[in-house]
Design goal:
With 146 residues, the chain is mainly α. Helices cover 68% and strands 0% of the residues. The chain is built from eight helices and no strands. It is globular.
Amino acid sequence: MFTPSRDEVRQFFCSVWQKRQARLPLSGAELPAADILACHPEYHALLDNPAQALDREWTPEDGETNPFLHLSLHLAIAEQLAIDQPPGIRAAFSRLAQTRDAHAAGHVLLECLGEVLWAAQKEGKMPNSTVYLDKVRTYAMRKAGN
């Protein structure tokens, strides 16, 4: 299993952004990453400055969201949807996407995944995919009025 460092993740997203801007070929994980980056214009200036991206810290105490964590969660969700893992996540996403655009539906998954990852880290356990899927389904049903 590949576990990139903080700097490698940041360099990956900056590199994908630079390639997309230069209209260079993308492959593998770069393809969904480029689509995700396109949906986040609030991060484009940061991605245009890799040195700043590598040095900057974002802390919850300062009320800031780490853009690279946000983008990485989007990328994880893109992979989950591509392989329907956990089983049923694609159907739950489709249900969410009936009431909002795909990017907004992805943000719901991102919130649910973030909560599950935070709880797992806090408890020193593996993330619980059943809890994650239940959170997504509950959100989808609540918004659909069921």
